[in-house]
Amino acid sequence: MTRSILVFSLTFSAFASLAQAPIKKRSMMPKDIYRLQTVSDPQVSPDGKWVSYGLSTVDTTKDKRNSDLWMVSWDGKESVQLTNSPDGESRARFSPDGKYISFISARQGAAKGQIWLMDRRGGEAKKLTDLKTDLEEYVWSPDGKKIALVLRDPDYADSAKTKVRKPYVLDRYHFKADVKGYLEKGAVHLYSFDVATKKIDTLTTGIYDETSPAWSPDGSQLAFVSNRSDDPDRNENTNLYVMEARKGAPMKQLTTWTGADNNPVWSPDGKYIAYLRSTASGNFIMYDQPVLAVISREGGETTLLSKTLDRPVRNPKWSKDGLSIAIQVQDDRQTYIGHYTFPEGKFAGLTGGNRVFSNLESTPDGNWVALMSDPQTPGELYAIENGNPRRLTRVHDDFLTPLELSTVEGFSSKSKDGTQVSNVLYRPANTPAGKKLPTIFYIHGGPVSQDEFSFDLTRQLLAAGGYAVVAVNYRGSNGRGLDYTKAIYADWGNKEVQDILGAADYVVEKGIADPDRLGIGGWSYGGILTNYTIATDTRFKAAASGAGSSLQLSMYGIDQYTNQYETELGAPWKNTDKWLKLSYPFLKADRIKTPTLFMAGEKDFNVPSAGSEQMFQALRSLGIPTQLIIYPGQNHGITVPSYQKDRVDRYLQWFDKYLNPKNL
Asked: What GO molecular function annotations does the UniProt record carry, in alphabetical order (predicted)?
């Protein structure tokens, strides 16, 4: 008996010791891409007790992502999976009475996404609509009896009895777009769907798009956005309109700004509409930042609440009492939540810190819900009470538990013309102090975006490969004010390259980077800047240019930016010298000495593969080590999980070949 007790005691102690032993951490690997889930689209129930969200996971068998719907309780103690099908579900919305949850899915082999309705008390979801065309948006009416739909005109050219599609017939100025492909005639319009009878009434028709429908609180009117200029393809103008939510009702134009007015949100009393207005007017407003604006439902003068803030604001949401409007503010590597009192216009920040908030939603009791991410944590849902974030979901705990992530910090560098540039530095975990590292400058796209203090999978994976990774918020990036963003207008590859080289000088001077082992890469405008940089300076020993271009003259008419080109650069036949000047990476390709990997999506209409093909052919002709990777069937964004892993694998293999000390 005594011996048995002793054996049990020793065995229990061994198990207890194992339970207390910390999990051995490892570096992140490209295959971890398959493990990372994505939280999206939070929606608060009418009683404020639950928050629904989408959760995207990778199905490795089908090599695609699949989205299911979940709910988490307001106290964060209970999570409920609502759907679990191979077809995927998205855009969950609570019915106004809170009894139902609607969502979009192409279940049961449907060719088009349909609205499905799920009773929260239990039972299978039921298909609500039988739409024959693409559903772009949908919004419940306040009384729950109707749903406003945004539907695209049917594509009759693709309805042949055979599998051979009829030829595209194109006569629009803007005739192609990434993902959508070639654009024939057709628009998106507003419809009203009766939930009880399933009858659909057409609210708008014609050649113009109508988007972003928002019901007035009493359910009598819809506000929406449209560009009703003579030729909408040739400008960026949009305005706000209102109309009664009935067939045949006239529409009333509220705004007359020649720039962009978007994202209408009614005040709780229905007297005002908050929205986002562009700072600049004109045909193309790439280098711009949205301003929070408010207008009466009757029209008239617009109040610009955030005009003096000089930062981009997003996603306006009225407080429940209608006395303030919350927004997301992009500010120098952060995105925080702030609010303006109305009508006084006093501003105050609600959250701060080196982190990023998005997808802001209000709650019935005056609090907020948002997604929040920081450099060590992918986006999770948080309740925000009196400005204090409280975590609701823990989706990424299993993903993060075995991983040893890089350390992330901000730093400021100075360019040769004295400009101060904000950057983010990733260091591999457990890097010895003072050790000079092979360093990759991974440049963001846009150009009007910014690298922030949020979780960045690509840079974490590069850092896990043993590299310091630098993210440069070059001029053209947002978060630093309008003048900083507009600094590169019609002057591509000049100030941005100065800023990248200034950041390189800094990390070398501080002993962070080994000057003999510098690499550079990026996607989209990051790929374009990679090409500009290696054609300017030979210090980089390896490069990876994704979805980039160099012979800018050849991009006219083969991508989706003709309107920008003619506004910013002028027509090529009128301003040829400017186009040739901006094409210097290709026209001066014989100056490039950097071994460069080029990548592109086969069906990219944003920055077509021709841009990468041209540079690959030039370097191949010049005898510079190079390789071209084309991802089949992919648009500008690479969405197939195995291709996402392949891209990072190739980054690491290419940089290892030329930068890793083992091969020097």
From this structure: serine-type endopeptidase activity
Strands (E), 428-504: 437-443, 468-472
Q: Which of 20, 147, 158, 26 shows the shortest CA–CA distance to 91?
A: 147
Task: Identify whether the C-beta of residue 409 lies closer than 8 Å to the C-beta of residue 485.
Answer: no
Q: Which two tokens stand for residue 324?
A: 């303030």
Burial 273-293 (b: 16+ CB within 10 A, else e): bbbbbbbbeeebbbbbbbbbb
Give CA–CA dist 522/304, Å, rounded. Answer: 36
| pLDDT tens column, 273-289 | 999 999 988 766 789 99
Residue 121: inside a domain, yes or no?
yes
pLDDT over threshold 90, residue 157 = no
Pair 375, 455: CB distance under 8 Å: yes
C-alpha gyration radius of the chain: 27
Spatial CA neighbour of 224 closest among 261, 187, 269, 199? 261
Residues 6 or more apart whose CB falls under 8 angstroms from that of 502 comprise 413, 414, 415, 416, 419, 421
**Between the CA of residue 205 and those of 220, 264, 281, 429, 441, what are the distances in Å?**
20, 21, 27, 58, 49
Q: Are 379 and 389 in contact (CB under 8 A)?
A: no
Distance, CA of 232 to CA of 222 (rounded, Å):
22
* Residues sharing a CB contact under 8 Å with residue 278, sequence separation 6 or more, in sequence order: 236, 257, 259, 260, 261, 285, 288, 290, 291
Asked whether the predicted pLDDT for residue 533 surpasses 80, the reply is: yes
pLDDT at residue 329 greater than cutoff 80: yes
| Residue 8, in any domain of the structure | no
Does residue 350 form part of some domain?
Answer: no
Domain membership of residue 434 as a residue range: 404-663
Give me the percent of the chain exceeding a pLDDT of 90.
88
Structural domain total, the chain: 2
Residues 6 or more apart in contact with residue 484 via CB below 8 angstroms = 475, 476, 477
**Pair 364, 46: CB distance under 8 Å:** yes
What CATH number corresponds to the domain at position 652? 3.40.50.1820
Residue ending a domain, among 93, 111, 129, is: 129
> Per-residue confidence at 662, pLDDT binned at 50, 70, 90?
low
d(CA 2, CA 48): 59
* 79 vs 12 pLDDT, higher one: 79
Residue finishing a domain among 99, 129, 159: 129
Q: Largest Cα–Cα distance of the chain, in whole Å?
A: 100
CA distances from 453 to 316, 497, 574 (A): 22, 22, 43
Of the chain, the end-to-end C-alpha distance in Å amounts to: 66
Cβ atoms 382, 391 nearer than 8 A? yes
In a domain? residue 236 = no
| pTM of the shown model | 0.94
Would you say 88 and 40 are in contact if contact means Cβ atoms under 8 Å apart?
Answer: no
Q: 315: number of CA atoms within 13 Å, CB side?
A: 19
